Amino acid sequence: MGYTNVLVIILLVVITSPVVFGNDAAPIPQNSRRIEQWFNTNVPSLASKKDTLDPDLLTAEASPRVRQDGRGHFKTLTEAIASVPAENTKRVIINLGPGVYKEKVTIDRNKPFITLYGHRNAMPVMTFDGTAAQYGTVDSATLIVLSDYFMAVNIIVKNSAPMPDGKMKGAQALSMRISGNKAAFYNSKFYGYQDTICDDAGNHFFKDCYIEGTYDFIFGSGRSLYLRTQLNVVGDGLRVITAHAGKSAGEKSEYSFVHCKVTGTGTGIYLGRAWMSHPKVVYAYTDMSSVVNPSGWQENPQSERDKTVFYGEYKCSGAGSKKEKRFKYTQDIDSIEANYFISLGYIQGSTWLLPPPSL
């Protein structure tokens, strides 16, 4: 591949007139046609919520320092990220041109406030073929984000390693590992097989995304809200969407899937399994096709975990959502309990979540 221009922009946010905005407690509506209205009300522009944002985020978004030359061109995404100074305090948008970026990219902890931005009609593709045998499981990812306040908009991330055959050791191959706090993903796609996304640690928000995999393809100890995101399972044999790594009842980590779609082939997909002792996963208003196994959740090989798992379903739809044969400890949560999982308070969103930029 020839050189691809990567444009780095320090975003100067335009302050507009304040508008009324919601709060962390406003639940996502059951009517899917009202999602955008809910989002625009509860995740408004910077100017509308500047009094509620984390001080560091407010400084990063509202008082940027522009580079001397105004912009920079780089041969690779890695070079563009390297140009961001350590202990960065300003929002930096890396505008990726269309094309394929065959790189293994890491954003270090000392580089917060970075946005990877692609254009909706020409989404850039980040791809690499790292495996657990080469790098270790969590470090096999094509994109590793260790820093806080990260954002991705209109990007595709793939791990191009082959699908595990069940024989080769270390065949796990991550698309992304997100270990930073307060990260948002908009209209982005993630492709892999086993362990596609390590939703590792911190508060995260995914909206209008697509995630594909085979086994444990969303795993880790993050506290994440997935909104209107498609979960597509491929391959044959045992397939599991989530392996949440909760280790204690008091741990503040869990996954919530709201207005999502579960798709794929076959009839053997499980919504989750108890990889660790205290997994906590909820699906609300989610369309589950017939690919979902009637039991819903994989039965625990360790019987003691029957009492420590939290598997919740709330007003889901589709052939795969029928509850007659569900795993016996599936929680049929009520509206009061559900509101906790379907509001921004779940990820403390009012202090850090902003809409995607428009370039």
UniProtKB/TrEMBL annotation:
<comment type="pathway">
    <text>Glycan metabolism; pectin degradation; 2-dehydro-3-deoxy-D-gluconate from pectin: step 1/5.</text>
</comment>
<keyword id="KW-0134">Cell wall</keyword>
<keyword id="KW-0964">Secreted</keyword>
<comment type="similarity">
    <text>Belongs to the pectinesterase family.</text>
</comment>
<dbReference type="InterPro" id="IPR000070">
    <property type="entry name" value="Pectinesterase_cat"/>
</dbReference>
<dbReference type="GO" id="GO:0030599">
    <property type="term" value="F:pectinesterase activity"/>
</dbReference>
<dbReference type="GO" id="GO:0042545">
    <property type="term" value="P:cell wall modification"/>
</dbReference>
<dbReference type="GO" id="GO:0045490">
    <property type="term" value="P:pectin catabolic process"/>
</dbReference>
<keyword id="KW-0732">Signal</keyword>
<dbReference type="Pfam" id="PF01095">
    <property type="entry name" value="Pectinesterase"/>
</dbReference>
<feature type="signal peptide">
    <location>
        <begin position="1"/>
        <end position="22"/>
    </location>
</feature>
<keyword id="KW-0063">Aspartyl esterase</keyword>
<feature type="domain" description="Pectinesterase catalytic">
    <location>
        <begin position="66"/>
        <end position="349"/>
    </location>
</feature>
<protein>
    <recommendedName>
        <fullName>pectinesterase</fullName>
        <ecNumber>3.1.1.11</ecNumber>
    </recommendedName>
</protein>
<dbReference type="InterPro" id="IPR012334">
    <property type="entry name" value="Pectin_lyas_fold"/>
</dbReference>
<keyword id="KW-0378">Hydrolase</keyword>
<dbReference type="InterPro" id="IPR011050">
    <property type="entry name" value="Pectin_lyase_fold/virulence"/>
</dbReference>
